[in-house]
Design a protein that fits this description.
Elements lengths: L2 E5 L3 H12 L3 E5 L3 H11 L4 E2 L10 E4 L3 H11 L7 E4 L19 H8 L5 E5 L5 H6 L3 E6 L2 H13 L3 E6 L4 H16 L18
Parallel strand pairs: 1-2, 1-4, 2-3, 4-5, 5-6, 7-8
Antiparallel strand pairs: 6-7
Length: 208
C-alpha cells in the first residue's frame, strides 16, 4: 500500500481520502486551515493524520486536491519539501464558460507545476476526468500522464488500491489532452448525457 499526503480539504480531498483509507493506504491531510484539515482527518478515520501546512509531506505520493489556480503557487510554496515526491495534479483549468481551457497554449497545470517543483519531484496528471460522485460510488478508469515511468507505476499501484483501473496515456505533455478530456466530460454532462453520473472509459474487444 502507499503513503499518501493530500493537500486540500474539499470534496475531492474527502473522496480520494476515503477510498485511500478503505484501500489500506496511510493518509495525511494538509490544509491552510488546520482545523478543517483535522476535521477531515477525523472523518476519514483509519489513522489519518494532519500535517502542518507548508512542511514536508509524510507521504511519498502527494495529491494536490486544489482548484487549478492554486496548484502551481502551492507547489512553489512547498518547494524543497516536495523533493523526491510524486505529485499528482487532479485539477481542470476550465474557462469561464466551461467549454474550453483557461490557458490557450498547449500546456497544462501539471506541466506548469513541474517547472517550479524541485528537479527530483515527479509530476503526474490523474483523476481529472472523473466527477466526484462517480469516484465516490463507481469504478471509473483513471487516466494518468507523466514523464517518470517509476512514478507512474507508483501511482498505478495506488489507483489499483482504490479498486480502480489505471490507464497510462503517455508523457506529461499528454496532461494537456487529459485537461481537454475534462472539458469533454462537462460537455457530455451538459448535452449528450445530461447528468454527472458517468465517466469516460475504455472498452476492449474480447481477446484483445
Amino acid at each position: 500500500m502507499s503513503a499518501i499526503s493530500i493537500i486540500g480539504t474539499g470534496n475531492m480531498a474527502r473522496t480520494i481520502g476515503a477510498r485511500a483509507v478503505a484501500g489500506g493506504n496511510t493518509v495525511e491531510i494538509m490544509g491552510r486551515d488546520r482545523a478543517k484539515a483535522a476535521d477531515l482527518a477525523q472523518a476519514l478515520g483509519g489513522g489519518t493524520t494532519t500535517g502542518e501546512w507548508g512542511t514536508a509531506p509524510a507521504g511519498d505520493i502527494v495529491i494536490m486536491a486544489l482548484l487549478y489556480d492554486g496548484v502551481v503557487p502551492v507547489v512553489a510554496r512547498y518547494g524543497d519539501a516536495l523533493a523526491g515526491k510524486v505529485v499528482i495534479d487532479i485539477s481542470n483549468p476550465f474557462n469561464a464558460t466551461f467549454d474550453g481551457l483557461d490557458h490557450r497554449e498547449e500546456t497544462s497545470i501539471a506541466q506548469r507545476a513541474a517547472t517550479v517543483a524541485p528537479q527530483s519531484t515527479s509530476l503526474v496528471k490523474a483523476f481529472n476526468t472523473v466527477f466526484r460522485q462517480v469516484l465516490e460510488k463507481g469504478r471509473p478508469d483513471i487516466f494518468l500522464a507523466g514523464d517518470d515511468a517509476q512514478a507512474k507505476k507508483d501511482v498505478a499501484v495506488f489507483v489499483e488500491s482504490l479498486g480502480l483501473r489505471p490507464l497510462d496515456v503517455g508523457g506529461l505533455k499528454m496532461a494537456h489532452w487529459l485537461e481537454g478530456a475534462g472539458v469533454v466530460t462537462v460537455g457530455l454532462a451538459n448535452h449528450g448525457v445530461g447528468n454527472l453520473d458517468f465517466s469516460l472509459s475504455i472498452t476492449e474487444l474480447p481477446g484483445s
